[in-house]
Every structure is written in C-alpha cells, then in structure tokens.
Design a protein that fits this description.
The chain is an alpha/beta fold. Helices cover about 40% and strands about 15% of the residues. Helix 2 links the parallel strand 3 and strand 4.
Length: about 210
Amino acid sequence: MASKVLFISGWAGYPELFPRLSPHSFFVLPFVSHSQSDIKNLLYSRSWDIVLAWSLGANLCLQNPGLISTRHLVLAAPFLDFTRHTPVTRVQKMQQGMQAAPQTTVRWFWRRCGIKSVPRIRQDDVKGLARGIEYLTHSRPEHIEHRDMEFCTTLIHGSRDKIVPRQAVLEVHRVLGPGSFVSFPGGHFVDEERIWQVIHEQTGTKIF
C-alpha cells in the first residue's frame, strides 16, 4: 500500500462515493473541504507517492503540474478548459440550479456521471460547490511545461463519458507528453475498483 496518496476528487465527488479509497488517502473535495489555495499547498509543498485526481480535481493539478512533487500522477477524466467542450450556457444553468435547487442540481449531475448511489449534500457545502462551478468557467491552465515534470503520468477515460469527451483527454495527453492512456467502457465517474486496478497495473501499488 502506498504510504502517501493524495486524492483530489471531482465536483461534488463526496468521499461516500469512494468508501474504500477515501480512508486510505488524503481526500480532498475541491472548494468544499479545501480551498484552491489549500490544494495548491498540498500539491506544491508536500511530497506524495501518488497524486490521484478526478475531473475538476485533475484540472486543478494541471494548473502548474511541473511543481507537483510525486512519483506518479494519475488523472481521471482530465480536461484543460471545461468550456471548450461544454457550452458556457450549460455551466450557467448549473450555477442557477445551485441557487434555486442545489440537491436537484447535484443529483442531475451525478446521473450524467453514471453515479447510482446518491449521498445527500450538506447545506453548508452549497457555497463551496457553487465556487467550484464558477471555477469551471475559467479553468484553462497557463503553466503547463511537460519538460519540467519528473513523474510518470496515467490518464483514465470512460468511453461513454457525457461530461468530458475523449478529445479533451487527448488534449491533456498531448500537452503532458509521454505517459499512459487508459480507456474503459464506462462513463464520467470512475469507481474505486477501476482506479485500484489501473494504479496497480501502472505502478505496482495497492492503494487499499
């Protein structure tokens, strides 16, 4: 088992969705459990055996990946610019939904992800989740320099992903340079058993 695994989840990617993985990692729910500044400090000021990130979390890693100190960077459903492949109007509708009916909006998103279990979001989390949606409107990284990176990269993508298309992941693959690309027959949500399998195959590490 890896001694230090940082897992930066996706938007509304609660730890309940990863019941075995979340206790065996330093789990981050972006803009809810940790601010963007907190996440930068975790990525740039500490060393990790594995940095694992999903969707929104993956994009936060891509803001300046050359500063990340890890042996392996594993990104599930990563993207460089969310609104390049998703209309801004759809993001704005999600923003409006978080104001009017946050529970309904999150459940709609989970359904699009292919998530079947639906933990109830806490009212105190709504403001952080709304900040996460706002972040998606200006998510394009400015400091990707793959020659500065000294870790192995693995990208994971579901062939039926309705949120992040294959083209978006291939853009990340081209920018990061050499690394592994793993496609599987699934949607946007990558369950923890799939994550375990990919990380074990790519790194030889059992993360739980």
